[in-house]
Each structure stands twice: as structure tokens, then as C-alpha cells.
Amino acid sequence: MPVTAYIGIGANLGDARANVLDAFERLGKLPGASLEAVSSLYRTAPIDSSGDDYINAVARLSTSLPAQVLLEALFGIEQAHGRERPYFNAPRTLDLDLLLYGDEQIATPTLTVPHPRMHLRAFVLTPLLELAPQAVLPGLGRAADFAPAVADQGIIRL
């Protein structure tokens, strides 16, 4: 049975906007997944990082892929964009995060769902709520309930 998954997308190196748009296209071509919707693009300042502003978005997929297999496919898309991980929160050509996978809570050495800290980041919550105003973060509560706490984080809809 297909599962609805939400993917956080961000980039701040190279042509960040083009990289995010290409991620939408690549997500739409993933075997075992169907791209259902994408949010607007948003510009945000780096948090706990450096470099240029980020372009962020969220995509909604319907997928029959197990969560770990989907995560590995996301890594493949990142690698196609030359993603490097020299240090934690390093600037990036493309970052794809599995935010939500149905109503599952997952905690393995390589995957945590809901994505840690997503409820603390306007660059995740704002585009997620655009696509799914009633979204629930399993184990945490309604996504909308976290929005006021991140209202001071600068985010501009493009």
C-alpha cells in the first residue's frame, strides 16, 4: 500500500534554485514513487551554518518504497548534484531529507522520522504547511502548533 512521504529540499551552493527544481524533476522519476505536489520555493538564511542563503522547498510523494530504500534514493539524487559532507551543516549543492513517512516513527542508526529538528525550522515548517496544513508530526503533534515558535526565523516566499 502506498505511503505519503514528505521530502525537505535545500541548496545554497552553485545555482541553488536550479538544483531544487532539478530535485523536483528527479523525485518525479523515482521508480516506486509518484510526485504528488511541491511547495513554493523559499529563501532562508543559513542556520547553524555559513554561506549564501538557501533555497528551500518540500515535496509530497506517494511511494511504495520502504523508508530506508527511499532515503538511499534521496542520497543518490544528492550525489548526482555533487553533494559533499565535509562537516556538520556544511553548505551544500543539494540536501534532501525524509521528513515524514506516513504516520511512522522510525529510529535507526541511519534514519530518524519525523526528521529531527524539523519542528524547529521555519524552512521546513512553512513549505510543509503550504502542502499539508493539517500535517501531524508523529510523536510530536500538529505541525501548525510549532509555527509560532519559528516565526522569527527569516523566510521569504519566492
TrEMBL record:
<keyword id="KW-0547">Nucleotide-binding</keyword>
<dbReference type="GO" id="GO:0005524">
    <property type="term" value="F:ATP binding"/>
</dbReference>
<dbReference type="InterPro" id="IPR035907">
    <property type="entry name" value="Hppk_sf"/>
</dbReference>
<dbReference type="GO" id="GO:0046656">
    <property type="term" value="P:folic acid biosynthetic process"/>
</dbReference>
<keyword id="KW-0289">Folate biosynthesis</keyword>
<keyword id="KW-0418">Kinase</keyword>
<dbReference type="Pfam" id="PF01288">
    <property type="entry name" value="HPPK"/>
</dbReference>
<comment type="similarity">
    <text>Belongs to the HPPK family.</text>
</comment>
<dbReference type="GO" id="GO:0046654">
    <property type="term" value="P:tetrahydrofolate biosynthetic process"/>
</dbReference>
<keyword id="KW-0808">Transferase</keyword>
<protein>
    <recommendedName>
        <fullName>2-amino-4-hydroxy-6-hydroxymethyldihydropteridine pyrophosphokinase</fullName>
        <ecNumber>2.7.6.3</ecNumber>
    </recommendedName>
</protein>
<comment type="pathway">
    <text>Cofactor biosynthesis; tetrahydrofolate biosynthesis; 2-amino-4-hydroxy-6-hydroxymethyl-7,8-dihydropteridine diphosphate from 7,8-dihydroneopterin triphosphate: step 4/4.</text>
</comment>
<dbReference type="GO" id="GO:0016301">
    <property type="term" value="F:kinase activity"/>
</dbReference>
<feature type="domain" description="7,8-dihydro-6-hydroxymethylpterin-pyrophosphokinase">
    <location>
        <begin position="6"/>
        <end position="133"/>
    </location>
</feature>
<dbReference type="InterPro" id="IPR000550">
    <property type="entry name" value="Hppk"/>
</dbReference>
<keyword id="KW-0067">ATP-binding</keyword>
<comment type="function">
    <text>Catalyzes the transfer of pyrophosphate from adenosine triphosphate (ATP) to 6-hydroxymethyl-7,8-dihydropterin, an enzymatic step in folate biosynthesis pathway.</text>
</comment>
<dbReference type="GO" id="GO:0003848">
    <property type="term" value="F:2-amino-4-hydroxy-6-hydroxymethyldihydropteridine diphosphokinase activity"/>
</dbReference>
